[in-house]
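Self-study notes.
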Amino acid sequence: MLAALLACHLFFTPSDAKFAYSKAEELVADYTPRDSGTIRGRFAANYIFDSLQAVGAHPKQDKFAAKTPKGYRFFTNIYAEWVSDPEMPWIILISHFDTKSLKNCPGANDGASTTGLLIAIAQILSKNSPNSINIALQWLDGEECMIAYRKNDGFWGSNRAAEQLASSGRNVKAVICLDMLGDKDLNISIPRNTTDFLRNIALQAAFNTGYSHIIHESNESIKDDHIAFLNNGFPAIDLIDFEFGSESGLNDYWHTNEDTIDKISVGSLTKAGSIAVEMINLLSK
C-alpha cells in the first residue's frame, strides 16, 4: 500500500526541464511566428500533437472557427487527459502556444516555454499519473489579441475550452494557467484575480519545493487564459512572470522580436515545473 502511495507522488526533475526546454526550442526554431488563424499556427498545433503522442499521451485536437477583427479564423486547441475515475474531481493545467501577430515574433518565453513545460508534464503523467484524481492538460490557441482585448479579440481558445468544460458537468477542483515561466530571471506572481485557496496551494507548493523566494502575491489583476474559467464558475489561478525585460521591473522583451530562446533557461523551467507538479500533488490528496 505504501509503495502504491509513493508511486503516485510526482516529481519534476532537471532532466524534465531539459526536455521542456528542447520542446520550446524546437517550437521557436520551426514555428516562428505561430499566430493563431494562420497556417504556421496550425503547424504548431500539429507539432504539439505529435510531441504528445511521442511521450505516450493520447491527445485530441479541437478545431473550431471564431469571429475575429480580421474575419472568421480557424483555431486549434490540443487536449490530453489522464482519467482515474470519471466521477472523481479534475485538475486542469493550461498554456497558450500562439504568438503575437508580429513579423517573426519568436514567443520563446510567452508561449513556447510553458508549452514545453506542459509537454514535459505530459511525459511524467504518462509514466506515473495519480490514481486519486483526473488530470487534463490543454494547449490553447488564440490567447493573443489581434488589436486589443475585447469581445471577439483574444482568448478564443480559453473561451472555447471553458465553455466546453462547463457543458461537460465535470467536477473541477482547479484550473492552473501557466504563462511566461521560462524567463532566466524567474519571478512568479499570483495575480489578484485568482481563487483564494489555489493561491494558498501555490504558495505551499513553492515552500515544499524550496522556491518560496521566486513567487509572490500581486495586487494587480492580469488578463490571461484563466479568466474564461473564472467567468464560467471554476476555481482558477494564473502563475505568470510579468517582468520580462532587459532590466529588473521592465517588460520590454514582451510581445517583441526580443522574446528569443536565449532569454529562457532550464533552471527556470525546473523551478516552474517543480511548483506546478507539487500543486498537482497537493490537490490530489
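Second protein, same conventions, sequence then structure:
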Amino acid sequence: MRFNKEEIYIFIKQNIKTILPAFITSLIIIVVLLFFYYNKKDKQFTSGFQEYSFTSESISNVGETTEDQVIFIDIKGQVKSPGLYEMTVKDRVNDAIEKAGGLLADADISNINLSQKLKDQMMIVISKKGERVVTQNSLTNQVAASPSQTININLASKEELMKLKGVGETRAQAIIDYRENKGNFTKPEDITKVKGIGKASFEKMKDQIEV
C-alpha cells in the first residue's frame, strides 16, 4: 500500500494529539538513555585516570627511605659485645646498646643521648667512668673541645654543643631537637635552620663545626 504526501499530511493532522505525545515521550527516552550511556563512559574514564595517578605516585615513591632500611653501626667500649651490628634507621642508640649485650658495670652514659636515631656507618663509643675519650666523627660521651678540634653537630651531645661560640644550653637543646625531628644536617650551614641561630651566629662558629 502506497501513500502520497497529501494522505500522510492528512493522517498526521488528524492524529496529531496522539502522535505528538508519543514523539515527545520517545525523544525523552532517547535523551535519558544517551545521558546514562555517556555518564557511564565518563565514570569509567575517570576511574581509569585515578588508577593511573595512584600507580604513578607509587612509582615516584620508589627509592625513598623507609623505617625498615638496613644500616650498619660500629659500637665500641664498655658494652658486653662490641662490634659491627645490623640495625634499621628507626632504631635508636639505646637499641644498639641492647643489641651489643648491654652496658658493663663501669660504663659512663651520662652524656650519651640514648634517644638519638642511628644512621649508616655510625660509630658509638661508650667510655669508662672517669675516662676521657677524644674521637671525631663518632658518638662519644666525653669529648674534649679545643680550638683545633671541630664538633660534629649531627653527633655531639648537649655539653659538646655548648662549647660552640654563642651556644648555650637552650640553643644546644634546640640543635638536638632539630636533628631528632628533622633529621641530620647535610652541611654546616644548615645549622642556621635551627631556631635562634642566624647567619651572624654561624659566622662565629663555622670553623668549629662539621657534619
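Instructor comment on the second fold: Residues 191 and 197 are 7 Å apart (CA to CA).
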